[in-house]
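Long-time lurker. I teach an intro course on protein structure, and each term I like to show students one example going from raw sequence to a predicted 3D structure in token notation. This year I'd like something fresh instead of my usual example. Would anyone be willing to generate the tokens for the chain below so I can use it in lecture? Attribution to the forum is fine with me.
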Amino acid sequence: MQQHMYVKRQTNTSLWITLVAVLVVAVIVGSFFSLRSLLVSSHNNNPRPPHYPVPAATATPSRTAPATPTPSPTATNVTQPVPATQTSCPAPSTARAMVTAPLAQGPHPQIVYIAQDMNNLASANRIMRYDTVSHQSSEIYAVPSPYIVRSSFLSSDGQWVLLSLFDTTKPGDNANVQLRMVRVDGQGAQTLFCGELASLTWSPDKKWIAFDDPIQALGVADTIHLINTTTGQYLDAVDVPPQTTPPGYIPRPSFWGSPTQLYLSYSLGSAPFHTYLFDLNNGTHQALSALPLVSTQQYVQGRADSSNIYLLASSCSGATCGTNQAGMSEIERLSTDWKSPQVLFKKPQLLLNDFSVGGTNLLVIASNPAASRRELWLVKTDGGGAIQLASAPGNWNSSPNFMNIGNGTVATSADGSMFVVSNWPSASGTTPEIAYGSSKAGGTLTAVPQDNGTYQYALGWTSL
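-- Reply from a regular --
Happy to contribute to a lecture. Here you go:
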């Protein structure tokens, strides 16, 4: 009943309602077209920036025709040419700022390495890169004669190579050294410093180069120096007084825990073995006595990530540590305050040679003297999941002893997905080679091609 009455009233007023509805629709449609015109006008006044294709980095022509190595297919920047640089030496006790420019990352993981003529160790070195996708080698930089590479580093972003070049025509291993840099596409070769130096380290943000004076005689003072690569400042960071207690070991730059924290440690074998922390936030010209003594533990080398310190440390002490003794080393993880040590990897049959940290993985290269084998192991940074990735027959102490290579080195990609190992026994049984692989690929290793009689040593990974 109520419904019927409502319909009747609706019928009596239908004409009025229809007129109102037409008017409302007209207003809405007019507003829509006005708004659309406004939006179109606004869009045209603020157009999207044009998309420019990212150019590929230009490689130096190859003589022969290990950034993240697994980058996103889309590069995040555009390669720019490096402005003019200088390779002449700056004035004594001064340095130059690093001249740099962006380099676009590409989809191809590439290994940066050094090639050395085994038949002529005094010959110049070549800085090379190997594309693991196209399987082509390219020359980055030919070190000019009479210089040879004494030590070398690849920046943490895979963009630049830092070289310590020794002049073979002048006496003294630590004298007449040049610190030279070059971008991994071959551009921007430049000399930042010339002088004497011994140990050399490079901060993870590329801002600071730390080094000490050549090893001094007992009772002679030493200095830890810094170069600010962004300003060219040459600074005295730590003043080390004369060491009068035999054997007179002097703390030297060891490794960086962060962009501002540098660890100094005595040479392996000193007693006691002290590690000090130099913090740039506390200024320069700090006295050794003012630095915190963070550890007295003996170790061969240290690495760091954002929250942990990793050490290749001795697992024996005193007379039980023989030079050729297996089972004397382990990988340890400590918090950044050097407390709560945890053994991550130790095998009684293995002598550990080197390790690398990438992502959540540790890659460890080791020698098994009893079996005359070289072995490569992967272990998680929490200590779990240790697996052997590869092994090869090889005399564990027969490797070349130049270029600080020891008995093999390993470099992991930033995300831990790939590795490259130097001094891996070659299938032909001749010159050791560089081999690389995926951390998920089991025992599959691929050798980087090498020229006859050439020794190759990997610095790490880039992507172009």
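Some talking points for your students: The chain has two helices and 29 strands. The domain at 109-318+326-463 is CATH 2.120.10.30 (Neuraminidase).
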